[in-house]
Amino acid sequence: MDQPGPRPRTTEAAAPLRDRLTIPVLAFGGILMAVMQTVVVPLLPDLPRLTGASPGAVSWTVTATLLSGAVLTPVLGRAGDMYGKRRVLTSALVLMTIGSVMCALSSDITVLITARALQGAAASVVPLSISILRDELPPERRGSAVALMSSTVGIGAALGLPLAALVVQYYDWHTMFWLTSALGALGVSAVWWAVKESPVREPGRFDVLGALGLAAGLVCLLLGVSQGGQWGWGSARVLGLFAATVVILGLWWWQQLRTAKPLVDLRLVSRPRVGLSHVAALLTGFAFYANSLVTAQLVQAPKATGYGLGLSIVETGLCLLPGGVTMLLFSPLSARISASRGPRITLALGAAVIACGYVVRIADSRDLWMIILGATVVSTGTTLAYSALPTLILRAVPAEQTASANGVNVLMRTIGQATSSAAVAAVLVHHTSPVGGALVPTLHGYLLAFGMACAVALAASAAALSIPGDHGTGATRRARGRIREHRDEALEGA
Hints:
- By secondary structure, the protein is mostly helical.
- Helices cover 77% and strands 2% of the residues.
- It is built from 20 helices and 2 strands.
- It has helices spanning 17-20, 22-38, 47-51, 55-58, 60-83, 85-105, 109-119, 125-136, 139-170, 173-194, 208-231, 236-257, 266-269, 272-300, 313-341, 343-363, 368-396, 402-429, 443-466, 474-493; strands spanning 432-435, 438-441.
- The protein has a two-stranded antiparallel sheet with strand order 1-2.
- Strand 1 and strand 2 form a beta hairpin.
- Helix 2 packs antiparallel against helix 8, helix 5 (60-83) runs antiparallel to helix 11 and helix 8 runs antiparallel to helix 9.
- The longest helix is centred in the first third of the chain and has 32 residues, at 139-170.
- The chain is globular.
């Protein structure tokens, strides 16, 4: 089930240049997607002045990307399985680049929000790329390539923040979007040239009603979660959105079970190996995202708080940079652990390492080197966990459903991140003290946030261990590999 069909055996050195560049090009697309999502962060404090809009309106430059990415990831994943993964991947990168050009050309907040919504389509880049790697690579290269692709999310985020901060500090803010537009155009061209169209398809009619129902339900859910702190968790708007979520997604579930070719195969999701992987993805997304949120705020807090370091946004980005480098270095290790012990063990280990990172943060969040160490440990665990999740999905679903299944897995991570953002904000808002005439979070509030994320990471590890074990891993699979090699050598000799 892991391979769509036999492919010619070609050594990497003898492969054409385009084939050798497939993995780097797809990885570049994943890093570019994460950079696009991050670059607006340094601008948020100044955007009200630069656009003449209210802070509430400016916050939609982030919310719009979150909502559109959550909605479009499973939809574009399904479209990739049906109509061609490279075609849909290229379209997502084109939409991302168009959004960047729109941001570069305008200072109108409505245009900026619309452009950021277009950029949300790029959230589907990683699951589509992982599906292409499954279809195109032999098993012995697939694990490390998938691990690298999964790590690009953290690598791009770690690179994007200091890069954007430097550009914003020394140049006009539109320059940043012209730069990302050029990088986007390069990514589109590289994918079109270096990536082959996958032959694996699942024919049928696209489930338009299912796509609309899922979109409506997710918009209500994520809008309520992301705006709950600002509108009030007990407000009529937020409660109404959550009620609408239950009704819409309930009807959507009923419709999906009665559709011949559903957008999401819920019978597949109900299998423990798939369903528990999605639960682990949601919990891991929650635990991982708290690290970036809290670290950035903590190191920028004024020194008058007694714990803050008063760092600039550029210095903050540099503090997060070691985590991104660590994700790049540890992705091959994740692939080796998954090959020898199985991806569920890698996932459980990664979540446990995330929890250890938060223990370090709780032990000392005053010294810069300890803050960087704790954040880097969390990034290391995230690398192991995020690299194992798509491998679990690839082993549990048919080849013709890999893009849509991985799209749902990424969606669960997104929901986890959105929930983490709301939960961390709620904790910090309730633990503040006046400093210099303004209310700022207390160190106790930050430590509570770390403790909450640590508990969720441990829950993710437990969920991973509950996933049914992989068959054919370790010594058994190595023995099978040796049998195949001897068989191939015998055939070549004959």
